[in-house]
Write a structure and sequence with these properties.
The chain contains three helices and 14 strands. By secondary structure, it is of the alpha+beta class. It folds into two domains: 165 residues, no CATH class; 121 residues, Glucose Permease (Domain IIA), CATH 2.70.70. The strands form three sheets. Strands 3, 6, 7, 8, 9, 10, 11, 12, 13 and 14 form a ten-stranded antiparallel sheet that branches. It has a two-stranded antiparallel sheet with strand order 1-2. It is rod-shaped, with a radius of gyration of 49 Å.
Length: 306
């Protein structure tokens, strides 16, 4: 305890003064009260700070819960869109490819057990977090299934396109319209040279010598002038799917054996070679070696020629 001094007016000096007992007790009591007050104040400040933190955490939790719910709503909307996409895929499969059984392979199976997310527990929002995980898993599964579906769809479509490209489907020469004067049909007829009833295994299209002749589908040149049946200069194209086409009485041939040709590609020119009385193209279509009427396989040549 510090010493106290008082001024002696008579001696004009400071003299050390000894505190009375009462004064000592009062001083001690004042110090104790002051200490208790300071401790209380510090305690109050700490309690207030902790309370603010609790409130802050509660608000953050509410915001997080709200955001989780928004995310789950978006996931559910995406999941519904995935289901619709799956149904569309399934319908395309059935309509275009007659694949009724394959869709069973892709049926959605969204049963999940809770075990996978068992580690998420004892939180205030454990169920919300677990459900979000499960919703995302289900969405990813649907996405994967639709992805597999589309890949298979693309493969099947490419196969179909390939088959279509190799199927004769256009006129072999440019003919804006066909009349009885420009066209001799498929079937039995009186042969113009032999004058007897014979099967006409193709069609004759009147055209001037030098008119371009087009391949009616993709294929490989199987034969150039390889037959002595009155065809004259002729080409046979193998379309690799049971179809063959024959182009006869040509004046010129511009392709070679084994060459690959595209639908609409020029392969020769109309002429009057072989057993014929006038310039025209004799065109035959065969399916598995049997002649069939090419008229049923005519499409618009203008869409294909270059
Ligand atoms: Zn003919």
């Amino acid at each position: 305890m510090k010493d106290l001094y008082e001024y002696d007016k008579n001696l004009l000096i400071y003299k050390k003064r000894v505190l009375t007992k009462k004064e000592r007790v009062l001083k001690i009591v004042k110090n104790v009260i002051l200490t208790i007050g300071i401790i209380s104040l510090i305690n109050q400040v700490l309690i207030s700070s902790s309370f603010i933190n609790v409130i802050k955490n509660k608000i953050e939790l509410l915001i997080m819960k709200n955001e989780y719910n928004k995310i789950n709503n978006k996931i559910n909307e995406s999941s519904i869109s995935m289901n619709k996409l799956f149904v569309i895929n399934e319908n395309i499969y059935k309509a275009l490819f007659n694949l009724y059984n394959i869709t069973n392979f892709f049926k959605l199976n969204g049963s999940y057990t809770d075990n996978k997310y068992e580690f998420i527990k004892n939180f205030e929002e454990s169920d919300l977090i677990k459900n979000t995980h499960k919703n995302i898993d289900l969405l990813l599964s649907k996405l994967k299934i639709n992805s597999i579906f589309l890949n298979t769809f693309e493969d099947s479509l490419n196969q179909k396109i390939n088959v279509c490209n190799f199927t004769p489907s256009i006129n072999p020469i440019k003919i804006p319209y066909i009349t009885s004067k420009t066209f001799s049909p498929f079937g039995l007829r009186i042969h113009p040279i032999y004058n007897i009833l014979l099967m006409h295994e193709g069609i004759d299209i009147s055209a001037k010598t030098g008119t371009a002749v087009y391949a009616t589908a993709d294929g490989y040149i199987d034969c150039v002038n390889c037959s002595n049946t009155g065809y004259g200069n002729h080409i046979i194209i193998d379309h690799k799917n049971g179809y063959e086409t024959i182009y006869a009485h040509l004046s010129k041939i511009v392709v070679k054996k084994d060459q690959f040709v595209k639908r609409g590609e020029v392969i020769g020119l109309v002429g009057v070679t072989g057993n014929t009385t006038c310039e025209h193209l004799h065109y035959e279509l065969r399916s598995n070696n049997l002649p069939i009427n090419p008229e049923n396989y005519f499409g618009d040549v203008y869409n294909y020629i270059k």
